[in-house]
Design a protein that fits this description.
alpha+beta; 2 domains; 6-stranded antiparallel β-sheet; 11 helices; 11% strand
């Protein structure tokens, strides 16, 4: 299975930030959608899809996010940039980087500002605008376009991909990922989980662990629940879910796809939901909780599959 693992991991590494390209406005959390729609029309260079992709790329719509570089909030402003460009958009008397009602409009305004700063730089104006948000206008001017930084180049590519994606299927996958992410921290329960959410499980796992007293999910219970949110009814076990999915080639993997583990189709023993960048969200084993893990958390990746959309509830 090493060849299979390597092929998928190598493909994921070429798109390390990944999942912004798998969403549309329909997958933006409902509480932020109107803010993104409005702020995404601040100037002609910005669109709601571009702004939504940027916010996902920056923070996965997490208003409490903090980066290793100390960038803060849903739009990941550094303190210096916020002091200069943050606005009190909701007019509550303070400019709050942690408040999406201020931060999202500020991100739209700042995109327009950097678009003006790099308008005379050669190349694609939209690419240069996004690169300036990520690396700074001075770097875009210095290099005469998108700087030769892998992070910035990937950032620009992913947000552009987001803006050009087909709506329905992409929004569906974004919803699948979000549904699973809402269950982060729920305990593992052998046989637990159904289309309604976490539930008590059954007895017993191969190691003798019982889920009868634990409300939570096992691996396939989590995937079953997440796909129920988009009207797709998956069978109960990981092997059955593989049989109900279309194979996905390494270069075509997108967030929301299912990652299956096992030596053969009939011995598949685990499944997780791909979230991008070589990571999955899964219910890994008894004693653990729903969490993010690297795609190669187990060495026996068998395949990646995309559930048939016609199998509806």
């Amino acid at each position: 299975m090493a060849v299979v693992v390597g092929a998928y991991i190598q493909a994921a590494a070429s798109n390390p930030i990944g999942t912004a390209a798998t969403l549309t406005m329909a997958a933006v959390p409902a509480e932020y959608r109107s803010l993104v729609e409005k702020a995404g029309q601040t100037c002609p260079q910005v669109s709601p899809n571009i702004l939504a992709g940027l916010l996902y790329q920056e923070s996965k719509f997490n208003p409490r996010a903090v980066s290793s570089a100390k960038a803060e909030g849903i739009a990941q402003f550094t303190r210096g940039t916020w002091r200069e460009h943050g606005i009190d958009a909701n007019r509550d008397g303070k400019r709050d980087v942690w408040d999406p009602e201020d931060a999202i409009p500020s991100a739209g305004k700042y995109l327009c500002t950097v678009a003006k700063e790099v308008k005379d730089v050669p190349g694609n104006p939209k690419d240069n605008m996004l690169a300036a948000y990520n690396a700074g206008s001075s770097k875009v001017k210095k290099y005469g376009g998108v700087p030769p930084y892998k992070e910035t180049q990937t950032y620009v590519r992913n947000i552009n991909a987001f803006a050009s994606q087909d709506g329905g299927a992409i929004a569906q996958n974004g919803t699948v990922v979000q549904a699973a992410e809402q269950m982060l921290g729920k305990p593992y329960s052998w046989g637990g989980g159904n289309s309604n959410g976490p539930s008590t499980g059954i007895c017993c796992s191969p190691n003798g662990k019982s889920g009868t007293s634990i409300v939570g999910f096992d691996c396939s219970g989590l995937t079953l629940y997440a796909y129920a949110k988009v009207g797709i009814s998956l069978p109960r076990t990981a092997a059955q879910q593989y049989a109900a999915s279309e194979p996905v080639k390494p270069g075509d993997v997108r967030a929301g796809d299912l990652v299956f583990y096992g030596a053969t189709a009939s011995t598949i023993h685990h499944v997780g939901i791909y979230v991008g960048g070589g990571w999955i969200i899964n219910a890994p084993h008894p004693g653990a909780e729903v969490r993010y893990d690297p795609m190669d958390t187990m060495s026996d990746v068998y395949a990646v599959g995309r559930p048939h959309r016609q199998k509806e509830i």
